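[job 0417] fold request received: Peptidase U62 modulator of DNA gyrase
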Amino acid sequence: MLSRDDLQDVLRQAIANGGDFADIFIERKKTTGIGCEDDKIERINSGIDVGAGIRVISGEATAYAYTNDISREGLMKAAKIVSHAAGENKRDITFNLTEVKPVVDFEFQKMPDTVPTDDKVALVLQANKTAREYDKRIKQVAVGVGDVMQQVTIANTLGNYVEDERVRTRFMINTVGASEGVIQTGYNAVGGLVGYELFDEFNPEDVAREAAGRAIKMLEAQPAPAGKMPVVMAAEAGGTMVHEACGHGLEADLVQKRLSVYANKKGEQVAADIVTVIDDATIKNKYGSFRFDDEGEKGQKTVLIKDGELVEYMYDRLTAMKEKRESTGNGRRESYQDKPIPRMTNTYIAPGKDDPEKIIKSIENGLLVKKMGGGQVNTTNGDFVFDVAEGYLIRDGQVVSPVRGATLTGNGPEVLKIVDMVGNDLGYTIGTCGKDGQGVPVSDAQPTMRIPEIVVGGTGVSDGPTIRRIRRI
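[job 0417] inference complete; emitting structure tokens
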């Protein structure tokens, strides 16, 4: 174990030849993953990864090196390498490392390494059995449980010293239903910044039934109609749209590179005045939560869009330095092998005042989206295309029948501007967000929302102009 004096010496070596800032990220990570396919356990993986990354920032340039040797000698060697890459602009930087205390704390009740592997295997097998027994049309099931126990030490030339422990557990199931030449899938996942107490809140058999039920519903569904129509996004749909069509565009590196539709729009109205977008790393037990980001900044709650007005972006250390401001605590990295970059944590549209049931009743002819699938977005202009994993027709204010094959096509900022009802509920989904080749755990959420008009792609026939009508209540 390295002392603070050792880390101070390493940091001094890193900026020996110049630089404005240097930091060290030391990681000890233990992972376990168990997967079941074809009605049997296919894999049980576990491993320990230990390493450190050292970074020097000089102006807008960054030098970065990482190593598996976390001894004093190994870190000094890596520090010497980045010090030469930083240039020849020596500065006298003095600092003394002082421990930083978090603004929030998280407790882990059932640490993954205290749960026997046999118990984890039994959990996976039972979920597999439950999904397969749900309906004889379920032909394939894949179940997985994974956990991560991560200890990090972070120190920098500002004098900040951080020690943190993160425990994340995730459970997922994917089902495939088939009947009369039609194949449909149903997916479900739960997880959080928690140990195996996750399953005190989420029964894995219930998660399995929901995934299998989704596949069967979509097998029985009629083809989705196509055309412009009002859409209700249920809270259960999760925040895929806010994450992809809005969130990435509010990350400061894309803004500074002019690769975001939201660049230079701070202070402008970019959404309806009933829309508020928040990124919050401090929410208890959520998958994207943490005490500190991967640069040692305290986890924070950041309001990005307030009552429709763009008020803030998400910054890491480097992007904040470029604007001579403070980081928002959004510097994240996949591992010690990666440089931190601005990333979302738990991003959501804040609940509004409308009753979700009344939102549905306000639609005469339209689409209810209960679960989003995959999709793609262009952060430069905000255009997106998303698959609907579970959708239903709304007729005369009633949810009448499931539909399959629907897609949503539109422009993120434009859609947010026309949202005219926001529910008082909130539903979360989890995932691993990819950016610049790095994946980090995130959550996203939204309340039930009404979008008066959006392009729905489908294989069915549109009902004509009446499908665009919205009944006011």
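[job 0417] notes: The first helix runs from residue 4 to 14. The longest strand covers residues 160-179.
[job 0417] exit 0
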